[in-house]
Design goal:
288 residues; mainly alpha; 11 helices; globular
């Protein structure tokens, strides 16, 4: 029983990190129609900013996490305003631009911190015991923070005027513009929120795994699969699919073997997409 609970918590922690990444990725696509292949680079930026603040400046880990979110969001805002906005309606161009941004981001971290993974442990390194079950503080923190972040995004989109404006631009941009909404103001903000989520994920997760210039690519790959599985552009689908992927990966890794997890995961997603090409919530894929 203890092993089952620990495996479930581990799966939920994985699902939480995938959900944060997938939510940001889906947000950028759902509102801006941009497939952001630089999302993994923002994850890495968040990790390195948190590492620098805590390890080099000796400030509390919580401040490092906040700094990581702000740094990733600021870079995302500037990138959308001065780079992506010029080609926002050209989908192929935005793909090329985000790939270029990803390469520049990785090369920048490589130049600043070197190729070797840095030792970044954060502050929550212990575990607490409930009966015979040992639960790492870091995993619990990841789940709680991710849940709060997801709730905050939903409140922003569905309970604020800014959220109404963003969804209006998604549904019918020409009509929204005619009603006075300004894409050139709102789109950079939406992209900043998306990249800020990636930075938050990097700050939370890299202390538990590893931090190197290109570690974001693997997380981005799994998160991208979760976005497709949930229904491209559907925020709810992305979150649900991410949790399912995290649980699947955890249980397969424990009870079958870690080397089989990617094979079974990719095969299962392929089969599901053959049966349902639009994903779990594909009927909402064009909405946020």
């Amino acid at each position: 029983m203890g092993g089952l609970i620990q495996t479930t918590i581990g799966g939920l922690a994985l699902g939480a990190q995938y959900a944060l990444m997938a939510l940001g990725f889906s947000l950028a696509f759902g509102i801006l129609r941009v497939i952001n292949f630089a999302h993994g680079a923002f994850y890495v930026v968040g990790g390195y900013v948190a590492y620098f603040v805590t390890s080099q400046l000796n400030l509390p880990y919580a401040i490092g996490v906040v700094a990581a979110v702000l740094a990733a969001a600021l870079i995302g805002y500037i990138a959308e305003l001065f780079i992506l906005e010029r080609r926002i309606d050209d989908h192929l161009a935005t793909i090329v631009l985000t790939v270029g941004m990803s390469l520049i981001g990785g090369a920048t971290m490589l130049a600043l911190f070197g190729a070797q993974a840095v030792r970044f442990t954060g502050s929550l390194t212990g575990t607490f015991r409930i009966g015979g079950v040992y639960l790492p503080y870091a995993r619990i923190m990841t789940i709680v923070v991710a849940a709060l972040a997801v709730a905050a995004v939903y409140l922003l989109l569905y309970k604020t005027r800014m959220g109404v404006a963003l969804r209006a631009l998604t549904d019918d941009r020409e009509m929204a513009v005619a009603m006075g909404m300004r894409p050139k103001v709102l789109f950079p903000l939406a992209f900043a929120i998306a990249t800020g989520l990636a930075g938050l994920t990097g700050a939370l997760v890299t202390p538990q795994f590893s931090l190197a210039p290109f570690v974001g690519e693997q997380v981005l790959t799994i998160s991208f699969l979760a976005v497709i599985l949930g229904g491209l552009g559907s925020l709810t689908g992305a979150v649900i699919a991410s949790v399912l992927v995290g649980l699947f990966e955890s249980f397969v890794g424990v009870y079958i073997g870690g080397s089989f997890a990617p094979l079974l995961l990719f095969t299962g997603i392929l089969v599901l997409l053959v049966v349902r090409p639009t994903g779990l919530l594909g009927h909402k894929a064009i909405n946020v």
